[in-house]
Design brief:
Oligomer: single chain
Strand content: 15-25%
Order of helices and strands: HHHHHHEHEHEHEHEHEEE
């Protein structure tokens, strides 16, 4: 009975935000309508977006690709504290989890997303968090847009090829789909050498180290990389690789994040 009551409350709250009627059935799931393959993520909805019941939108792919909020906040704080950027590019913004946390701290976020439904989710969710006015949303392909974008820092949370990474002992970044790490880094580095990449916890660390820029004409030490292991509830949820001026301290750190409302 309690479960049914909670579900009814969720439905009532979601109905308040019906300004996307043409995509409503794709982005506004309830306990009854969430696809069976996403039910584990439904249980984690408040760790993905703490303001979920205020009308958050996520299409099916977003449920397993949005960075948990406490991790997105940690990454945003690291970027801000170590680089003080004015403009950050979120090259694969998805439903806006990282974009929103970055916009809480910096002057401007350029958020790129090629899927039209997903970027509508991101815009809507940014409105809920009150930061939409600090974000320039661009619907398009990052690889085509990159030569025309200027930013102080590049944040990358690329597609990992779905949840299949969980079944690999070591996640091969050279074969990551649909874009491998080398392709993404080669396009990102001309924008800025200060790059953060959020990846699965089982990523191949040796492959990440291969992308340290050994350029000699820089005003900072770019021969380092910081690998941050991000833990919630004692479990590593992912890693973030920092390059350029973001790699402080260098080598490895283990971030034990506050549990907050995160669900196991």
């Amino acid at each position: 009975m309690q479960s049914s009551e909670n579900s009814s409350n969720d439905d009532a709250e979601l109905d308040l935000y019906d300004d996307g009627a043409d995509i409503w059935d794709q982005v506004a799931f309830t306990a009854q309508t969430i696809p069976s393959g996403l039910k584990k993520y439904w249980k984690q909805r408040f760790s993905i977006f703490s303001k979920f019941t205020e009308g958050i939108w996520m299409n099916e792919q977003s449920w397993y690709s949005v960075t948990p909020e406490v991790i997105a906040k940690n990454i945003a704080e690291h970027i801000y504290n170590n680089c003080r950027p004015s403009v950050v590019l979120d090259a694969f913004c998805g439903a806006g989890g990282n974009t929103i946390q970055l916009a809480m701290l910096v002057d401007k976020v350029i958020a790129v997303e090629k899927d039209p439904v997903t970027i509508r989710c991101a815009k809507h969710n940014a409105e809920i968090y009150g930061v939409a006015d600090k974000i320039e949303f661009i619907e398009g392909d990052f690889f085509e847009l990159a030569p025309f974008i200027e930013a102080d820092v590049v944040f990358l949370s690329p597609p990992w090829g779905g949840p299949q990474y969980l079944f690999q002992e070591v996640f091969d970044l050279h074969t990551m789909e649909p874009y491998n790490l080398a392709t993404i880094m080669n396009v990102s580095r001309p924008i800025s050498p200060h790059i953060a990449v959020y990846l699965p916890r089982n990523s191949n660390i040796a492959q990440l180290r291969q992308h340290v820029d050994n350029g000699q004409d820089l005003d900072y030490d770019d021969n380092t990389i910081l690998i941050s292991y991000l833990h919630v509830h004692g479990k590593c949820k992912g890693i973030c690789a920092y390059y350029g001026a973001l790699a402080v301290p260098s080598t490895t750190q283990y971030s034990i994040l506050p549990a907050g409302s995160a669900d196991e």
